[in-house]
From TrEMBL:
InterPro entries: YdhG-like (IPR014922). It comes from the Bacteria. Residues 164-177 have a biased composition (Basic residues). Gene3D superfamilies: 3.90.1150.200. This is DUF1801 domain-containing protein. Residues 149-177 are annotated as: Disordered. It holds the Pfam family DUF1801. It comes from Cystobacter fuscus (strain ATCC 25194 / DSM 2262 / NBRC 100088 / M29). Residues 19-134 form the YdhG-like domain. The lineage of its organism: Bacteria, Pseudomonadati, Myxococcota, Myxococcia, Myxococcales.
Length: 177
C-alpha cells in the first residue's frame, strides 16, 4: 500500500503502534549503518533510502527524475517489508545475506529484494544492518552503472540535420479476392 504521506514522521505516525515500533526499530538499524552518500525520505509511498541527484545526477533509469533507490521500508496490507536493492541482482551479496540470516535461526521470507515480516522478532536486525553497511554509495553506484548502462543519446532524425528524408516505398496494393 503506497502512502500519500510526504515525510517519514508522518508515515510512521499514521501506522498502528505495533507496526510503528517495528518499522522504527528497523529504521534505526538502517540509519546507524547507512553510508553518508545516501539520504532518507519518502519514495514510492514508503520510507526510502536513496542516492540523491547531488551524488548521482543520472537518477533511477526507470524514472531519472527519481533519485537512485537503495533500500525501503514499508507497512503493507498483510506484512511489513524492508526492500534491499543492495542484495537484488548481486548473487554474491544475496548468498551472503541468506547464509547470515540462516545463522540467526530466524525464518527468512524473501522475494528478490523484499524481506517480509509480521513482527519485529522475525527480523535479523544485525543482518539487515550489515547488508546496509557492506554497500557504501560509491560501491552501489559502481555496481548499478555496470549493469544499467547510461541511456544513449538519441540521434536527431535526418530531416532535422538539414538532410532530405529518405524516400518511402509505396505501400503494396492488396489483392482482390
Amino acid at each position: 500500500m503506497q502512502s500519500k504521506d510526504t515525510t517519514v514522521d508522518q508515515y510512521l505516525a499514521s501506522l498502528p503502534e505495533e507496526r510503528r515500533v517495528a518499522l522504527s526499530a528497523v529504521r534505526d538499524v538502517i540509519r546507524k549503518n547507512l553510508d553518508g552518500g545516501y539520504e532518507e525520505g519518502m519514495q514510492y509511498g514508503m520510507i526510502g533510502y536513496y542516492v540523491p541527484h547531488t551524488v548521482f545526477p543520472a537518477g533511477y533509469h526507470v524514472d531519472p527524475k527519481q533519485p537512485l533507490p537503495f533500500a525501503s521500508l514499508a507497512s503493507q496490507k498483510n506484512h511489513m517489508a524492508v526492500y534491499l536493492m543492495c542484495v537484488y541482482g548481486q548473487p554474491e551479496q544475496e548468498q551472503w545475506f541468506r547464509e547470515a540470516w540462516a545463522k540467526t535461526g530466524k525464518k527468512l521470507d524473501m522475494g528478490k529484494s523484499c524481506v517480509r515480516f509480521k513482527k519485529l522478532e522475525d527480523v535479523a536486525l544485525d543482518v539487515i544492518g550489515e547488508a546496509i553497511r557492506r554497500m557504501p554509495a560509491k560501491k552501489y553506484i559502481a555496481h548499478y552503472t555496470s549493469v544499467i548502462p547510461p541511456p544513449e543519446k538519441k540521434k536527431a532524425p535526418a530531416a532535422a540535420k538539414g538532410k532530405p528524408a529518405a524516400k518511402r516505398k509505396p505501400a503494396a496494393k492488396k489483392r482482390a479476392k
